[in-house]
Amino acid sequence: MRRLILAIGLAAVLAGCSTYTTPGAGVSLASISEADGDIAAAMSRQPAMTFPARLAVARLASSGFRSSSNDSYGTGAFSVVTTRDIESDESLTRLSAMPGVTAVAPLSRLLLPVRTSDTRDLRTAAAQLRADAVLIYTIDTRFRTETAQLGPLQTVALGFLPSKKAVVNATCAFMIVDVRTGFVYGTGETTAMGDQRSNIWGSGAAIETARLKAEREAYEDALGEIEKLWTSIVVEHGAARPA
């Protein structure tokens, strides 16, 4: 009888405990650059973009990336996130409104290879859109409490999170690459952080709200840095190569 009671009690506890799986990781943009580790190859690349320019956009993640609101396409060195969950129509409008931009188009999985190795695969897809440059960005989100670090794709029981300070960090890294030559015009990175009490994270929905909020803030901050970078690109390279 005691064993039966204990079994029933344990089953009740497990049934009442929901879990949350942290999202997959972003990808190191430096690791997928075509001239990674090759100084001579990097120095030999030259800008070839003409203005007004067409801009392709691709969000990257680690191979096999998934989150509660998204997943990715492709395997290999990285995958491409083709569903928008933190990006809005207004964000594309901001990119389209940058000086010297004539069109902005996200890369579709229809144009992408199943297996990817470096940025050349993205440039090949962007070339099919007649794009002059490709904006590549990635979001990396991490969770931690005062006692634990939660890595990518880690499943945690929500009921056992300690009632201590919890932090969600989202970092957006980006770079703009010439489609014709692979020349990197510039890079940047922004981070958004949300401090909360982990006892607020009593449900998967609450954690998702905190995650998406941090990721959207990091992405929106990155848009501001991208606008600044693009303006400097137009100033430096636009006059030398008029359309």
How would you describe this structure to a colleague?
With 243 residues, the protein is an alpha/beta fold. The protein has one domain (19-238): Double Stranded RNA Binding Domain. It has five helices and eleven strands. The strands form three sheets. Strands 2, 4, 5, 7, 8, 10 and 11 form a seven-stranded mixed sheet that branches. The chain has a two-stranded antiparallel sheet with strand order 1-9. Strand 7 (133-145) and strand 8 form a beta hairpin. The longest helix is centred in the C-terminal third of the chain and has 35 residues, at 204-238. It is globular and about 60 Å long. The protein starts with a helix and ends in a 5-residue tail after the last helix. 33% of the residues are buried. Residues 1-16 have low confidence and may be disordered.
Keywords, please?
11 strands; 243 residues; alpha/beta; seven-stranded mixed β-sheet; 30% helix; two-stranded antiparallel ribbon; Double Stranded RNA Binding Domain; disordered N terminus; 5 helices
Quick recap of the structure?
The chain has 243 residues and is α/β, with parallel strands linked by helices. The protein contains 5 helices and 11 strands, in the order H-E-H-E-E-E-H-E-E-H-E-E-E-E-E-H.
> How do the SSEs run, as a string of H and E?
HEHEEEHEEHEEEEEH
Distance between the amino and carboxyl termini: 85 Å
Q: Give the CATH topology.
A: Double Stranded RNA Binding Domain
So what's the overall shape? globular
Number of structural domains? 1
Number of H- or I-type helical stretches: 5
List low-pLDDT spans.
1-16
Report the strand count: 11
Coarse structural class: alpha/beta
Radius of gyration: 21 Å
